[in-house]
Amino acid sequence: MQKWSKGKQKEKVNNMVLFDQGTYDKLLLEVPKYKLITPSILSDRLRVNGSLARQAIKDLMARGSIRMISAHASQQIYTRATNH
């Protein structure tokens, strides 16, 4: 009889679904300094969920703080805005 190994439990990330002021300030100050910006990096570093990270990126794009490198159906990649 085969024993099924228990699948490794991925621990649930308890990320915020709304920005609080502190996180939002951090977003505006620190994120434009990252060399590589993707929704997954933001959600990891700022502890926000994926859809919020995407909204944040749209916001930063609109402010001109970051620019898009590549957009793909499943993954968008951005970098900080350099003046050139």
UniProtKB/TrEMBL annotation:
Keywords carried by this UniProt record: Ribonucleoprotein, Ribosomal protein
Gene3D superfamilies assigned: 3.30.63.20
Matches recorded under InterPro entries: Ribosomal_eS25 (IPR004977)
GO cellular component, one term: ribonucleoprotein complex
Superkingdom, natural source: Eukaryota
Family: Belongs to the eukaryotic ribosomal protein eS25 family.
Entry-linked PANTHER family: 40S RIBOSOMAL PROTEIN S25 (PTHR12850)
Name of the protein this chain belongs to: 40S ribosomal protein S25
Species of provenance: Vitis vinifera
